[in-house]
Amino acid sequence: MRNKHIGSNVIDTITEWEKDPAFKKAVDEHIEKAKLAKMLKDIREKEHLSQSQLAEKAHVSQSVIARIETNASRTLPRLDLFKKILQSVGYETFIVARKGRRVIKAALSA
User: Fold this and answer.
1) Predicted pLDDT of residue 6
2) Is 63 within a domain?
3) In 3-108, which ranges are E strands?
4) Distance CA 103, CA 110 (A)
5) How many whole angstroms separate alpha carbon 95 and alpha carbon 107?
6) pTM value?
7) What's the number of CA atoms in the CB half-sphere (13 Å) around residue 71?
8) Would you say residue 19 lies in a domain?
9) For the chain, first and last CA: distance in Å?
10) Which domain holds residue 18?
11) Does some domain include residue 110?
12) Selected residue with higher pLDDT from 94 and 2
């Protein structure tokens, strides 16, 4: 009888991992970081700014922008930092909570 190894059946392996709450939490957080990374990069490119130019406007280092955009940080960017960066180029930041058809939206002030 041959022993199964991790690479033997990727679908089975992923199914087992999905049962692990810590794995699901890590995947969900990675997806959220990727969404924020894409949003920031899309906004920066729409504004025709380099990472350095955006960093200068937001009064942060270029490496902060790079870490967010490349999803290199281990944690989600702090909300106040993300808001500060977006506001530096004229964007408002909103938090939207939705439950069924009920939607509550709040703008974060400057």
Assistant:
1) 52
2) yes
3) 93-99, 102-108
4) 23
5) 7
6) 0.74
7) 12
8) yes
9) 65
10) 6-77
11) no
12) 94
Cα separation, 108 vs 106, whole angstroms: 6
pLDDT by residue (tens digit) across 82-93? 999 999 999 999
Pair of tokens at residue 69: 């955009």
| 100 contacts: CB under 8 Å, gap ≥ 6 | none
Find where tokens 């924020």 sit: 36
Token pair in block for residue 1: 């009888």
* 27: CATH: 1.10.260
Per residue in 39-68, pLDDT (tens digit) is: 999 999 999 999 999 999 999 999 999 999
In the chain, the number of structural domains is 1
Report which residue type is found at 42.
D
Confidence at residue 1, expressed as pLDDT on a 0 to 100 scale: 45
Q: Are 105 and 94 in contact (CB under 8 A)?
A: yes
Whether 88 maps to a domain, the answer reads no
